Amino acid sequence: MSVKETNLIDGMGIEESTATLVLLAADPYPWELQLTDHLRTAQEKINQYVEFLQTGAFREKYPDKRLKGFRIEYVMKYPCPEKAVSFFEAGKAQLREIHIDFDYSVRAEEEPKA
Fold it and tell me: Is residue 2 part of a domain?
C-alpha cells in the first residue's frame, strides 16, 4: 500500500501510552518529477484519512477502544522540497483545528550491510 492508493489505510494502530489512534501514510516516491501531482495525491490521501476519522469508520476495527486522540503520520522515503514542507505545515495547522495531530518525516531505507 502507498500514498497513491488513496482509498486505503496504509497502516493503523493504537499508541497505548497515549490512547491515540495513529494512521500511517507511506510515500515511497521521489518528489523531483510531477510535484503538483504528488502534492495532489498526498492531499487526497490525507483527506481520506480525515474522513475515516470524522465518520467514525475506525470503530469497525476498534469498537470498544476509548481513544483520547488521533494522529496521521505521513512517512516519506525521499526528502521533500520546500513547497511540500509548506503544504505539510499548512495542513498540520488545519488538522490541529479539528483535533487531529499530523506529523511528517523521511525514513529512507538503510543501505544493506555487507
Answer: no
Cβ proximity of 45 and 72 under 8 Å: no
- Considering only CA atoms, which of 49, 63, 31 is closest in space to residue 91? 49
CB atoms within 10 A of CB 94: 13
- Give a yes or no: residue 100 inside a domain: yes
Is there a domain that residue 17 lies in?
Answer: yes
- For 53, residues 6+ apart whose C-beta sits below 8 A from its C-beta are 21, 23, 70, 100
Domain annotation covers residue 68: yes
| Full domain range(s) for residue 48 | 11-106
Instruction: State pLDDT tens for residues 61-90.
Output: 999 889 999 999 999 999 999 999 999 999
The size of the chain, in residues, is 114
pLDDT digits 0-9 by tens, 88-98: 999 999 999 99
User: The whole model's pTM is what?
Assistant: 0.90
Alpha carbon distance 67, 44 (integer Å)? 25
Q: Do residues 99 and 69 make contact, with C-beta atoms less than 8 angstroms apart?
A: yes
Number of separate domains in the chain: 1
